[in-house]
Amino acid sequence: MKHSDPKKLLMAKNASQDHFRTPRIASPFQPRIEALMRTEEWYDWAGYKAPLSLWDEELEYFAIRSQAALFDISPMVKYRIEGPDAEAFLNRVTLRDVRKLKPGRVHYTAWCNDEGHVLDDGTLFRLRSDRFRLCSQERHLPWLLDSGIGFDVSIIEETKSIAALALQGPASFAVLRDAGFKNVDALKVFDLAEFEHDGENVTISRTGFTGDLGYELFVDQELALGLWDRLWQAGEQRGLRAIGYAALNRARLEAGLIVANSDFITAEHAIRADRVRMPDEIGLGFMIDMEKPHFNGRRAIQQARVKGGLQHILVGLEVEGNIPAEHAIVYHQGKREVGLVSAAIWSPMAKRNIALASLERPYGDTITGDLWVEIYAMRELRYQKLMKRAKVVPRPFIKLDRRTANPPADF
Q1: 200 labelled as ligand-binding?
Q2: 34 pLDDT band (50/70/90 cuts)?
Q3: Where is substrate bound in this sequence (predicted)?
Q4: Torsion sign across C-alpha atoms 290, 294, 296, 299
Q5: Tell me: the pLDDT tens digits for 209-265?
Q6: CA separation (Å) from 125 to 34, 93, 294?
């Protein structure tokens, strides 16, 4: 009897399983992140291998709030939109009036389908009069291309070719200045400008997802490691630390910022008809400019406002106690189920138990009293049901003057 070669059998088995494997994409900054990784906590961000935490989630959060933190945002979906009709095209598909967005500025916006349901939210950078960069959580290239029919516009996804970093925290300006980015102090909130780096340019905007003083940097992927090293060296004396998403998520919640497919379900991902949301139902009604020319979803949004078609509202909650109420059910008078908490933490900065929740109107809108959340707390290997009072409070939960200070503080 002839025995099979064990090595060949193993190779054949591995080959037969290749179709089950989905390798994650490596960020241009992956070598630096891998070198700093201690927790081995990774997650999938748009197909990329991204750090949930690198060394300690709680200390990473405090790096944002007390010094400076570096977070890789390269997996964020990025589109370059340019051409003679770029402004008109973007004005047609997004909620805000793009004509008011000047070159060298950024605004937070969102876009809807024809039924007025939110497809995604993101940031729009006006790099030049006829060139924009649209950043988002989800991929929308087919929809953008279809929407661009009839416009003289070029739409290219540049997620892989453009590396990006978020530099956030009170010392973020000082790090950039010490790294040699001359006149970066001239950037006001939502400003952007180009700076020299390795003989090429890096785009720096005074933007971020933490509610703190912060910047985002965009550079060609070939220059990514050089940019990281430049910032890392400059930040050594100012306590610069690399962080993962878990710490960033704490900071964004304190700032009252929402995440697509976490705090609301985008129209393309919703399976059930009652899960979609209009901008007014997730706190984005302030973006809608009814004075500008027609845009996607305009008629549906207007009808919902006039005819009372808005069924939900996203609110900030303060919950009694110190146990986070993440994914807790919200009740009125402790009996009627009226909504669900999508994100919650004990806030070290606000010293409050805070949460974001989607509620069924009129609860959270005209009825804001006698709300309760149902929390299941694990105590000594048993879940204990806790009913805690909650009250609707304004967002953001914290407001830091240094975020908008001009010039930025030297920390």
Answers
A1: no
A2: very high
A3: 216
A4: positive
A5: 999 999 999 999 999 999 999 999 999 999 999 999 999 999 999 999 999 999 999
A6: 30, 15, 21
Whether pTM exceeds 0.85? yes
Bridge-based pairing of strands 118-128 and 105-112 is: antiparallel
- The CATH class that applies to domain 273-393 reads mainly beta
Q: CA dist 268 to 43, 55, 186, 264, 361, Å?
A: 22, 35, 40, 12, 24
Element (H, E) at 137: none
**Using an 8 Å Cβ cutoff, are 294 and 288 in contact?**
no
* Choices 3.30.70.1400, 3.30.420.10, 3.40.50.300, 3.40.50.2300: CATH for 77-157: 3.30.70.1400
Residues found in the chain: 411
Output phi, psi for 228, to 5 deg: -55, -50
Q: With left for phi above 0 and alpha for psi between -120 and 50, is residue 334 left, alpha or beta?
A: left
Q: What is the pLDDT of residues 301-332, one digit of tens each?
A: 999 999 989 999 999 999 999 999 999 999 99
